[in-house]
Amino acid sequence: MSSTTAPPRAEPTPPAPGAPPRRRRAARPDRSVLALMVPALVPVLLFSVAPLVYGAYLAFTDARSGRNVDIGFVGLENFAELLADGDFWASFQIGLVWAVGVTVLQLAAGMGLALLLDQDLRLRWLARTLAMVPWAMPPVIVGLMWRLVYHPDAGILNATLRDLGLISGDIDWLNDFSVALPAIIVVGVWTGMPQTTIVLLAGLQGVPRELHEAAEVDGAGAWRRFRNVTLPQLRPVVATITSLNFVWNMNEFALVWVLTQGGPGGRTRLPMLYAYEEAFRYGFFGYAAAMGVAIVIVVLAVLAVYLRRQLKELR
Fold it and tell me: Which SS3 state, helix, strand or coil, does residue 198 take?
């Protein structure tokens, strides 16, 4: 029985000297991969991208509430009105104080708690679980709970301060012009600290132990080891979590709405609360959409400056 042998495979012809290198054909994406991505992309397009595009479109119109109301294109008229709106800029300043204050305090408190949970303590698993409780609670429940804590007559905070002899009367924490904003900042820190703690704890566990041991052999104390070893290793993690926290805090709505609804006298009215009032209390949807676009632009500008500075320090 005769056997057939396959012809030898032709060797590729090497390119001539001086000829440009051959370009490889770009690999075409597998259709099955695209098909698997569609179920994930459709909700994102429907519930994130489409509302964002529609909101940006409304910012250039005179859309308002009512039946059979014609929507007209007004160009930059809403943004021109926004520049002259003193109430918006007042709310924006309050929003910056809130966002920066909560973000910085979340970082400080989260760093301290992450360093503590990174130690070899007894029942460490229980402490890590309890640290996640504020993050797992809905903002509405958190707001209602802290309203009870801050209650001027029956609140546990005033009762504790009276027992310690620090105050003699009652402080209306959420309705006093001087303490309302610091009071809600404390709530914001308590609510968002767990996510910062978990991210920083993951970063701490990625720091090589050999670096700490070498620094300890060189006689470095706990503070010097943290400043010269831990903190430089955590800088990318810190830049990421502070950027995310700033964006989330600048867009906060539900927690502050439940606590104060922007009062007293607009002292805690964040930009998102002001935009909500313009849209759903007064019916100026186009003007409220312009506020949202302006907030996004400013937040992106602040993040660009911050991240650029952080990247320069990492190089």
Answer: helix
Spatial distance between the Cα atoms of 75 and 279, rounded to a whole number of angstroms: 19
Task: Give one DSSP letter per residue of 13-52, joined into a string.
Answer: PPPPTTPPPPPPPPPPPPHHHHHHHHHHHHHHIIIIIHHH
The CA distance from 309 to 295, in Å, is 21
User: Tokens for 217?
Assistant: 């052999």
Cα end-to-end span (Å), the chain: 71
Q: What is the per-residue pLDDT for 124? A: 74
Residue 132 pLDDT exceeds 70: yes
Q: What is the pLDDT of residues 146-161, one digit of tens each?
A: 999 999 888 899 999 9
* Count of beta carbons in the 10 Å neighbourhood of residue 150: 24
Examine the pLDDT at 189 and tell me if it is beyond 90: yes
Beta strands in the chain, from DSSP E residues, in sequence order: none
What residue type is 95 in one-letter code? G
- The tokens of 82 are what? 């926004």
Which tokens go with 24? 């490889």
Structure tokens that stand for 223 in this block? 């503070």
**Partners of 73 in the beta sheet?**
61
